[in-house]
Amino acid sequence: MSGCRSGFYASGHPASGGNKGLVKSTDAGETWKSLSLSGESDFHALEAAHGTVYGYDSTHGLVRTTKDGVSWKDGARLEALDLAVSPSDLSVVLATTADGIVRSSDGGKTFAQGQEPLMAFLSWTAKDGLYGIDSSGV
């Protein structure tokens, strides 16, 4: 789940089956509205930044972006666990992978080769505030 001023975005797959695609709540999670890709995609990572939603679509193995929550642009094909977007530069995106952290300089269209350290989750809160949690929880 990812939050922004206009609400929360989420995805998933319920116990009853199927993929939720992108859903949005504007009332702190009380209710959810389907925006797009229902039945088609399961986003394992979502990040809202710079008026754009960045998502890792695990169903198709793609990084995808949308400005309106409906029309998507396909980016790089990779296996990621998490995404983080630079708070100062919308074109810089990081992803955690089994090969390390990968970096994109073009908004997720392509990524450089993975580099140490291996991280599971990232949070990029300020220009000099990148935080990571490795697979052991440290």
Amount of helix = under 10%
Main sheet makeup: 4 strands, antiparallel
Please give the number of β-strands.
13
Strand order of the largest sheet: 1-2-3-4
Task: Indicate the radius of gyration in whole angstroms.
Answer: 14 Å
- CATH architecture name: 7 Propeller
* CATH domain fold name: Methylamine Dehydrogenase, Chain H
Tell me the number of helical segments per DSSP (H or I, 4 or more residues long).
Answer: 0
In CATH terms, the superfamily is: YVTN repeat-like/Quinoprotein amine dehydrogenase
Strand content: over 45%
Low-confidence runs of at least 5 consecutive residues:
none
CATH class: Mainly Beta
Mean pLDDT: 92
Distance from first to last alpha carbon: 21 Å
Characterize the overall form. globular
Oligomeric assembly: single chain
What is the H/E string? EEEEEEEEEEEEE
* Number of self-contained structural domains: 1
> Structural class, judged by helices and strands?
mainly beta
